[in-house]
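Thread: GLP complex, take 2
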Amino acid sequence: MSANGPRVLVVPQVGWAAAVAAELAARLVERPSLRVCLPTGGTPTPVYAALAKAVRAGRCSLAAATVVLLDEWVGLAPGDPARCDVRLQGELLDHLETPPAFVRIGVDAADLAAAVARHDAAAAGLDLAVVGLGMNGHIGFNEPGSSPSGATRVVALQPVTITAATAQYGARSAPSGGVTVGFARLLAAQEVWLLVTGERKAAVLRQALEGPEDAACPASLLRRHPRLTVFADEAAAAQLRGI
Ligand code: GLP
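Output below.
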Protein backbone atom coordinates (compact mmCIF):
# COMPACT_ATOMS: atom_id res chain seq x y z
CA MET A 1 0.00 0.00 0.00
CA SER A 2 1.16 3.58 -0.55
CA ALA A 3 2.39 5.47 2.50
CA ASN A 4 -0.93 7.19 3.05
CA GLY A 5 -3.20 4.50 1.65
CA PRO A 6 -5.97 5.11 -0.83
CA ARG A 7 -8.38 8.02 -0.55
CA VAL A 8 -11.76 6.35 0.04
CA LEU A 9 -14.78 8.55 -0.62
CA VAL A 10 -18.10 7.12 0.51
CA VAL A 11 -21.11 8.86 -0.97
CA PRO A 12 -24.82 8.06 -0.57
CA GLN A 13 -26.12 6.21 -3.62
CA VAL A 14 -28.36 9.07 -4.67
CA GLY A 15 -25.47 11.52 -5.12
CA TRP A 16 -22.75 9.08 -6.08
CA ALA A 17 -22.72 9.48 -9.87
CA ALA A 18 -22.93 13.26 -9.67
CA ALA A 19 -20.01 13.32 -7.22
CA VAL A 20 -17.79 11.25 -9.52
CA ALA A 21 -18.83 13.28 -12.58
CA ALA A 22 -18.08 16.53 -10.73
CA GLU A 23 -14.54 15.34 -9.97
CA LEU A 24 -14.09 14.28 -13.58
CA ALA A 25 -15.34 17.66 -14.74
CA ALA A 26 -12.84 19.34 -12.38
CA ARG A 27 -9.98 17.32 -13.87
CA LEU A 28 -11.10 18.30 -17.37
CA VAL A 29 -11.19 21.97 -16.41
CA GLU A 30 -7.68 21.69 -14.94
CA ARG A 31 -6.38 19.81 -17.97
CA PRO A 32 -8.59 19.99 -21.07
CA SER A 33 -6.24 17.62 -22.94
CA LEU A 34 -6.78 14.93 -20.26
CA ARG A 35 -5.69 11.46 -21.37
CA VAL A 36 -8.11 9.21 -19.56
CA CYS A 37 -8.78 5.48 -19.64
CA LEU A 38 -12.48 4.71 -19.12
CA PRO A 39 -14.34 1.51 -18.23
CA THR A 40 -17.80 0.33 -19.17
CA GLY A 41 -20.26 -1.80 -17.23
CA GLY A 42 -23.22 -0.94 -15.08
CA THR A 43 -21.22 1.03 -12.50
CA PRO A 44 -20.07 3.97 -14.64
CA THR A 45 -23.30 4.30 -16.67
CA PRO A 46 -24.87 6.98 -14.42
CA VAL A 47 -21.52 8.78 -14.17
CA TYR A 48 -21.45 9.16 -17.96
CA ALA A 49 -25.01 10.52 -17.98
CA ALA A 50 -24.03 13.08 -15.34
CA LEU A 51 -20.83 13.98 -17.16
CA ALA A 52 -22.65 14.49 -20.47
CA LYS A 53 -25.06 16.77 -18.61
CA ALA A 54 -22.13 18.77 -17.19
CA VAL A 55 -20.71 19.15 -20.69
CA ARG A 56 -24.07 20.33 -22.07
CA ALA A 57 -24.29 22.83 -19.20
CA GLY A 58 -20.90 24.21 -20.21
CA ARG A 59 -19.17 23.15 -17.00
CA CYS A 60 -16.47 21.17 -18.80
CA SER A 61 -15.57 19.81 -22.22
CA LEU A 62 -14.07 16.61 -23.56
CA ALA A 63 -13.31 18.16 -26.94
CA ALA A 64 -9.55 18.24 -26.38
CA ALA A 65 -9.38 15.05 -24.30
CA THR A 66 -8.39 11.55 -25.34
CA VAL A 67 -10.42 8.60 -24.10
CA VAL A 68 -8.66 5.23 -24.13
CA LEU A 69 -10.94 2.23 -23.74
CA LEU A 70 -10.03 0.04 -20.75
CA ASP A 71 -11.08 -3.30 -22.14
CA GLU A 72 -13.03 -5.09 -24.86
CA TRP A 73 -14.57 -8.47 -25.49
CA VAL A 74 -13.08 -10.73 -28.16
CA GLY A 75 -15.53 -12.67 -30.29
CA LEU A 76 -18.49 -10.30 -30.18
CA ALA A 77 -19.48 -8.89 -33.56
CA PRO A 78 -18.98 -5.17 -34.20
CA GLY A 79 -22.07 -3.36 -32.95
CA ASP A 80 -23.01 -6.00 -30.38
CA PRO A 81 -24.73 -4.10 -27.55
CA ALA A 82 -22.38 -5.62 -24.96
CA ARG A 83 -19.28 -4.39 -26.77
CA CYS A 84 -17.41 -1.90 -24.61
CA ASP A 85 -16.87 0.48 -27.55
CA VAL A 86 -20.61 0.42 -28.32
CA ARG A 87 -21.49 1.09 -24.70
CA LEU A 88 -19.10 3.97 -24.21
CA GLN A 89 -20.21 5.50 -27.48
CA GLY A 90 -23.89 5.17 -26.56
CA GLU A 91 -23.59 6.23 -22.93
CA LEU A 92 -21.19 9.15 -23.32
CA LEU A 93 -19.61 10.03 -26.65
CA ASP A 94 -22.82 10.20 -28.70
CA HIS A 95 -24.16 12.77 -26.23
CA LEU A 96 -21.33 15.22 -26.78
CA GLU A 97 -21.42 17.84 -29.49
CA THR A 98 -17.63 17.70 -29.82
CA PRO A 99 -16.51 14.25 -28.67
CA PRO A 100 -12.98 13.46 -27.54
CA ALA A 101 -10.50 11.40 -29.52
CA PHE A 102 -11.62 7.84 -28.80
CA VAL A 103 -9.12 5.00 -28.86
CA ARG A 104 -11.03 1.75 -29.26
CA ILE A 105 -9.41 -1.67 -29.01
CA GLY A 106 -8.96 -3.16 -32.48
CA VAL A 107 -10.39 -6.59 -31.70
CA ASP A 108 -11.80 -6.93 -35.23
CA ALA A 109 -8.40 -6.47 -36.87
CA ALA A 110 -6.95 -9.33 -38.89
CA ASP A 111 -3.78 -9.00 -36.84
CA LEU A 112 -5.05 -8.98 -33.25
CA ALA A 113 -1.55 -9.01 -31.73
CA ALA A 114 -0.61 -5.84 -33.60
CA ALA A 115 -3.87 -4.16 -32.55
CA VAL A 116 -3.20 -5.06 -28.92
CA ALA A 117 0.34 -3.65 -29.15
CA ARG A 118 -1.10 -0.41 -30.58
CA HIS A 119 -3.53 -0.19 -27.69
CA ASP A 120 -0.75 -0.77 -25.18
CA ALA A 121 1.11 2.19 -26.69
CA ALA A 122 -2.06 4.30 -26.53
CA ALA A 123 -2.43 3.48 -22.84
CA ALA A 124 1.05 4.84 -22.03
CA GLY A 125 1.20 8.17 -20.24
CA LEU A 126 -2.35 8.28 -18.91
CA ASP A 127 -3.29 11.21 -16.70
CA LEU A 128 -6.11 9.24 -15.16
CA ALA A 129 -7.17 5.59 -15.20
CA VAL A 130 -10.79 5.05 -14.15
CA VAL A 131 -11.71 1.42 -13.47
CA GLY A 132 -14.61 -0.61 -12.15
CA LEU A 133 -14.52 -3.69 -9.93
CA GLY A 134 -15.47 -7.18 -11.06
CA MET A 135 -17.26 -9.58 -8.73
CA ASN A 136 -14.09 -11.71 -8.64
CA GLY A 137 -11.89 -8.68 -8.01
CA HIS A 138 -10.95 -8.20 -11.64
CA ILE A 139 -9.92 -4.82 -13.00
CA GLY A 140 -10.70 -4.40 -16.68
CA PHE A 141 -10.17 -7.98 -17.76
CA ASN A 142 -7.20 -8.47 -15.47
CA GLU A 143 -8.58 -11.62 -13.92
CA PRO A 144 -7.31 -13.22 -10.67
CA GLY A 145 -3.67 -14.22 -11.07
CA SER A 146 -2.80 -11.15 -13.17
CA SER A 147 0.65 -9.69 -12.70
CA PRO A 148 1.09 -6.11 -11.46
CA SER A 149 3.55 -5.65 -14.32
CA GLY A 150 1.19 -7.15 -16.91
CA ALA A 151 1.01 -5.61 -20.37
CA THR A 152 -2.09 -4.88 -22.40
CA ARG A 153 -2.97 -8.31 -23.75
CA VAL A 154 -5.51 -10.89 -24.84
CA VAL A 155 -6.83 -12.83 -21.86
CA ALA A 156 -8.91 -15.92 -21.24
CA LEU A 157 -11.98 -15.00 -19.22
CA GLN A 158 -13.31 -16.75 -16.14
CA PRO A 159 -16.72 -18.43 -16.57
CA VAL A 160 -18.33 -15.81 -14.28
CA THR A 161 -17.11 -13.04 -16.58
CA ILE A 162 -18.33 -14.79 -19.75
CA THR A 163 -21.73 -15.34 -18.14
CA ALA A 164 -21.90 -11.63 -17.29
CA ALA A 165 -21.45 -10.75 -20.97
CA THR A 166 -24.70 -12.41 -21.95
CA ALA A 167 -26.72 -12.32 -18.73
CA GLN A 168 -25.81 -8.82 -17.55
CA TYR A 169 -24.81 -6.90 -20.67
CA GLY A 170 -26.99 -8.60 -23.30
CA ALA A 171 -24.29 -9.95 -25.59
CA ARG A 172 -25.76 -11.77 -28.62
CA SER A 173 -23.19 -14.56 -28.28
CA ALA A 174 -20.66 -15.69 -25.70
CA PRO A 175 -17.32 -13.91 -26.00
CA SER A 176 -14.24 -16.04 -26.55
CA GLY A 177 -11.92 -13.80 -24.54
CA GLY A 178 -11.05 -10.26 -23.72
CA VAL A 179 -8.39 -7.63 -24.28
CA THR A 180 -7.45 -5.46 -21.34
CA VAL A 181 -5.10 -2.66 -20.56
CA GLY A 182 -2.64 -4.30 -18.18
CA PHE A 183 -1.61 -3.25 -14.69
CA ALA A 184 1.72 -1.88 -15.94
CA ARG A 185 -0.13 0.93 -17.75
CA LEU A 186 -2.79 1.40 -15.08
CA LEU A 187 -0.24 1.71 -12.27
CA ALA A 188 1.82 4.13 -14.38
CA ALA A 189 -1.12 6.55 -14.75
CA GLN A 190 -0.80 9.79 -12.80
CA GLU A 191 -3.95 8.91 -10.90
CA VAL A 192 -6.26 5.90 -10.54
CA TRP A 193 -9.95 5.95 -9.60
CA LEU A 194 -11.82 2.80 -8.60
CA LEU A 195 -15.60 3.08 -8.95
CA VAL A 196 -17.70 0.70 -6.86
CA THR A 197 -21.42 0.64 -6.14
CA GLY A 198 -23.96 -1.73 -4.68
CA GLU A 199 -24.24 -4.22 -1.88
CA ARG A 200 -23.13 -7.07 -4.12
CA LYS A 201 -19.66 -5.51 -4.35
CA ALA A 202 -19.25 -4.96 -0.58
CA ALA A 203 -17.33 -8.18 0.15
CA VAL A 204 -15.00 -7.87 -2.82
CA LEU A 205 -14.33 -4.19 -2.07
CA ARG A 206 -13.39 -5.12 1.46
CA GLN A 207 -11.06 -7.79 0.13
CA ALA A 208 -9.55 -5.30 -2.33
CA LEU A 209 -8.85 -2.63 0.28
CA GLU A 210 -8.40 -4.54 3.52
CA GLY A 211 -7.37 -8.04 2.45
CA PRO A 212 -3.86 -9.08 1.44
CA GLU A 213 -2.33 -7.20 -1.48
CA ASP A 214 -2.33 -10.19 -3.77
CA ALA A 215 -2.99 -11.11 -7.40
CA ALA A 216 -5.79 -13.43 -6.19
CA CYS A 217 -7.77 -10.19 -5.89
CA PRO A 218 -6.38 -8.06 -8.72
CA ALA A 219 -8.05 -4.89 -7.40
CA SER A 220 -5.85 -5.10 -4.29
CA LEU A 221 -2.84 -4.43 -6.55
CA LEU A 222 -4.15 -0.91 -7.15
CA ARG A 223 -3.11 -0.10 -3.56
CA ARG A 224 0.45 0.11 -4.90
CA HIS A 225 -0.53 3.32 -6.64
CA PRO A 226 0.34 6.47 -4.67
CA ARG A 227 -2.75 8.34 -5.91
CA LEU A 228 -5.60 5.85 -5.73
CA THR A 229 -9.08 7.21 -5.05
CA VAL A 230 -11.96 4.84 -4.36
CA PHE A 231 -15.44 6.22 -5.05
CA ALA A 232 -17.86 3.92 -3.25
CA ASP A 233 -21.51 4.28 -2.47
CA GLU A 234 -22.67 3.45 1.04
CA ALA A 235 -23.84 -0.06 0.15
CA ALA A 236 -20.50 -1.01 -1.43
CA ALA A 237 -18.59 0.46 1.52
CA ALA A 238 -20.74 -1.29 4.15
CA GLN A 239 -18.15 -3.96 5.03
CA LEU A 240 -15.12 -1.67 5.22
CA ARG A 241 -13.67 -1.43 8.69
CA GLY A 242 -10.82 0.98 8.15
CA ILE A 243 -12.78 4.08 7.19
C1 GLP B 1 -16.69 -6.15 -16.49
C2 GLP B 1 -15.61 -5.26 -17.17
C3 GLP B 1 -14.94 -4.37 -16.22
C4 GLP B 1 -15.99 -3.80 -15.31
C5 GLP B 1 -16.43 -4.88 -14.37
C6 GLP B 1 -17.57 -4.47 -13.46
O1 GLP B 1 -16.52 -7.48 -16.83
N1 GLP B 1 -14.63 -6.02 -17.90
O2 GLP B 1 -14.19 -3.36 -16.89
O3 GLP B 1 -15.45 -2.73 -14.57
O4 GLP B 1 -16.72 -6.07 -15.07
O5 GLP B 1 -18.76 -4.31 -14.14
P1 GLP B 1 -20.09 -3.68 -13.52
O6 GLP B 1 -19.79 -2.23 -13.36
O7 GLP B 1 -21.15 -3.89 -14.56
O8 GLP B 1 -20.34 -4.36 -12.26
